[in-house]
Design goal:
It contains four helices and six strands. A six-stranded antiparallel beta sheet has the order 1-2-3-4-6-5. Strand 1 and strand 2 form a beta hairpin. The two termini are 27 Å apart.
């Protein structure tokens, strides 16, 4: 999956916006104001930080060399995934979906309700 496909996939999700809250090269995707994915536009390789259930995060890291603890993020709740490696696009999409779903589940009821109206 390349950067443009990743970007389009994230933006197609309900309640998502893209932002540059840290600097002009760190692209962040938020759902209802909460971050679920980020990537550096100036990196040599295309990698993405995604939120992940802590237990599954450990399993993924043990099973896939392309998945490492989150770079500059909580190592418990975030993974950094090399999108240029051997992981196929359906699997990468499932990791994006998982991150998005975790954040949506953690939103206050009011924000989840607002999302349904979008």
């Amino acid at each position: 999956m390349d950067l443009e496909s990743f970007r389009a996939y994230c933006l197609a999700k309900k309640g998502v916006e893209e932002t540059f809250p840290f600097d002009e090269v760190t692209l962040v995707f938020k759902v209802m104001g909460k971050m679920f994915a980020l990537t550096g536009l100036d990196s040599e390789t295309f990698s993405v930080n995604l939120k992940c259930d802590p237990e599954w995060a450990m399993e993924l890291r043990e099973s896939h060399g392309e998945i490492q603890p989150g770079w500059h993020m909580s190592k418990v709740h975030w993974n950094t995934i090399d999108f240029t490696g051997e992981l196929d696009e359906p699997f990468l999409r499932s990791l994006i979906d998982h991150s998005y779903d975790l954040v949506v589940k953690s939103l206050p009821k009011k924000l989840r309700s607002d999302m349904e109206e979008l």
